[in-house]
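Recap quiz, item 2
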Amino acid sequence: MMNAVEIKGLYKSYENGNIKALNGIDLTIEDGEFVSIIGPSGSGKSTLLNMLGALDIPDSGTITVAGQDLRSSKKLNEFRGEKIGFIFQLHNLIPNISVRENIEIPMYTQKMSSKEMKVRALKLLDDVGLKDKADIMPNKLSGGERQRVAIARALANEPSIILADEPTGSLDSKTSSRILKQLIDLHEGKNVTLIIVTHDMDVAKLADRVVEVLDGEIISAGEESLIHGKINV
Ligand code: ADP
Ligand code: MG
């Protein structure tokens, strides 16, 4: 089995090294796994997710995602567009184009006709229960609806890995459950590798494995806590 993620000795600092965001991360995630990354605010979760999506460059260490070595700067745009579905903040939809056009944006890297893009966008919107909102502007949507559009957009190019940073952070519990169900359905139905960053333990424990981050280090990678459990017995 291939690994979706292989990270060894990853370091990242900001402000000329004064802020140490990641302090030697080692992490392997298998293809098709659902992993949640949990930890307090400022512990390095978003930094780690940005590295996984090749949105930021580490100071040192190795990182391979979906078979691509992210240290080689070649083809990173293609990699992001084809392999990764990003679900980040609530309000990252482009405001002055329609919901459907927002979903078509990632498809421009593919060789698709505008007709094909439209058909696919409408299918994706249908899947998240928003087909009737295709032609309206994002600012007419509720927070939960925007997040569902963000999910549809993340799936535009059928990514093998979905990276979600606090995808339910500012949503009520009912909407939050719906969003999570949609993500989990994808993971189960299409074997998508799902990596969700959250500070909410109720969300985190839905995953196959919970990775705990503190001060830029992994203090538990899920499977190890089982071993500790056995030693305690
Ligand atoms: P989390 O997502 O767990 O809340 P972050 O990864 O956002 O944590 O941040 C980890 C640390 O790095 C924090 O101290 C944060 O202030 C700092 N940090 C993150 N991004 C930047 C940046 N672009 N410039 C400077 N400091 C940053
Ligand atoms: Mg964060």
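Residues 173-190 form the longest helix (18 residues).
The longest strand covers residues 3-14.
End of item.
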